[in-house]
Write a structure and sequence with these properties.
This protein is an all-beta fold. The chain has a domain of 107 residues: CalX-beta domain (Immunoglobulin-like), CATH 2.60.40. It is 0% helix and 39% strand. The strands form four sheets. It has a five-stranded mixed β-sheet, with no helix packed on it.
């Protein structure tokens, strides 16, 4: 038997870390003021990890939300959870969505599941009296005080 060169081989075993959202969907009342979407690493990293993300959905910046965390989301050394945050803006109308999609990851990291998170802004109507005061005669047997909704809703 004749041995060919090379006579040795080096095997490097790499453990990939998963990057994913904690949940595939979440909801927030538009009047809440803020939201926070957790993104997780399956293992802490020995270096800083940058995770890019994109936005989509039916909501609009400046109308339904503002102040979204800048992409890429940065995980400091040793951390396993970071948050994409933003502010909700009260905007009468139908429920709207904001979709977060994780992007291309650095070497040593792979996308887990879920890699997309859909945040639903719940639009609750404003309920208010039509007028600030009413005057009736004490001899009146019935009266009504009008109350209005800011918009039609499916919420009971």
């Amino acid at each position: 038997m004749v041995w060919a060169v090379p006579l040795s081989n080096t095997l490097t075993i790499t453990e990939y870390a998963l990057v994913q959202f904690s949940a595939a969907s979440e909801s927030v009342n538009q009047a809440a003021g803020t939201f926070s979407i957790p993104v997780t690493l399956s293992n802490p990293s020995s270096s800083i990890v940058s995770v890019p993300f994109t936005l989509g959905g039916t909501s609009a910046s400046g109308t339904d939300y503002s102040g979204i965390s800048t992409s890429p989301l940065t995980f400091p050394t040793g951390t396993t959870t970071e948050y994409i945050t933003g502010h909700t803006l009260s905007d009468p109308g139908a429920n709207k969505t904001l979709t977060f999609t994780l992007g291309t990851l650095p070497a040593g990291f792979i996308l887990g599941s879920p890699s997309v998170n859909t945040l639903t802004f719940l639009e609750y109507p404003l309920v208010q009296f039509s007028a600030g005061s009413e005057i009736i005669n004490q001899t009146t047997s019935t009266f009504s005080i009008p109350v209005t909704l800011s918009h039609v809703t499916a919420v009971p």
